[in-house]
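It is worth pausing here to work through a concrete case rather than discussing structure prediction in the abstract. The textbook approach is simple: state the sequence, then state the predicted structure, then interpret. We follow exactly that order.
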Amino acid sequence: MKVFGIVGWKNSGKTGLLERLVDDIANRGFSVSTMKHAHHNFDVDQKGKDSFRHRKAGAHQVFLSSDARWVLMTELRESLKLTMEEQLGKMDPVDLVLIEGFKTNDHLKIETYRSVTGQQLIAPSDKNIIAVATNDKIDTVVPTLNLDDTKTIADFVLKTVGLL
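Step two, the predicted structure:
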């Protein structure tokens, strides 16, 4: 599977760009999956539902299914967290996995940047950031792409990973 990342500080436009890229690339006929890194404890289950109760009771895994979708929840408890590569190995094969977050991993990335966040660019300190998507005027050695030009960014990603 081809892997490409979108990184940036909070409120820099990562999720919006990723959502638009998935739509654009999937509409071109490519199969696309996403992986998102969360820095906080999160729950995809609903308190009080049977699956939530199973997990809270101590189940290592809970498989929840319907005619429309399924999800397998695994509680890490005392286990070591999985690396990004190990997580990718658990996904079904697709043409492209777009990754949101995982700033410090060694995969090719575009940084989303908005000066209003008050944060500095990540690109100067990360050799794996090969472009910056922004609408601000910035000084950087990597190419800059218009954050709102989804087609151009999708072309860039697809060419970079060898799908175009």
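Step three, interpretation. The longest helix spans residues 14-27. Residues 2 and 161 are 6 Å apart (CA to CA).
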